[in-house]
Design a protein that fits this description.
Length: about 90
């Protein structure tokens, strides 16, 4: 860990899942949530903030899929997509 608070630290994924795997999972989970009548944004945010998998329906295996990834990987994919669309 960098002890100098004046230097920027780097955050990276390392050797985890391929980048598009997080996107594929997020889209599949979103579809399952919509089909069950939930607001996917609210439910996914709740899951990312709390780590509680019960925010995600088990319908279409969505809960098991989203738990394959770390929450920071999901957040990274969301931020990356947002920046790609808005810069």
């Amino acid at each position: 860990m960098n002890n100098n608070l004046n230097e920027t630290q780097y955050f990276g994924r390392g050797g985890h899942e391929p980048e598009n795997e997080a996107k594929r999972i997020l889209l599949s989970v979103s579809t399952a949530l919509c089909e069950k009548g939930y607001n996917p944004v609210n439910q996914i945010v709740g899951y990312i903030l709390s780590g509680d998998p019960t925010y995600i329906t088990s319908y279409l295996n969505a809960r098991a899929m989203i738990r394959k990834l770390e929450r920071d990987e999901l957040l990274e994919e969301l931020v990356k997509d947002y920046l790609n669309r808005n810069t």
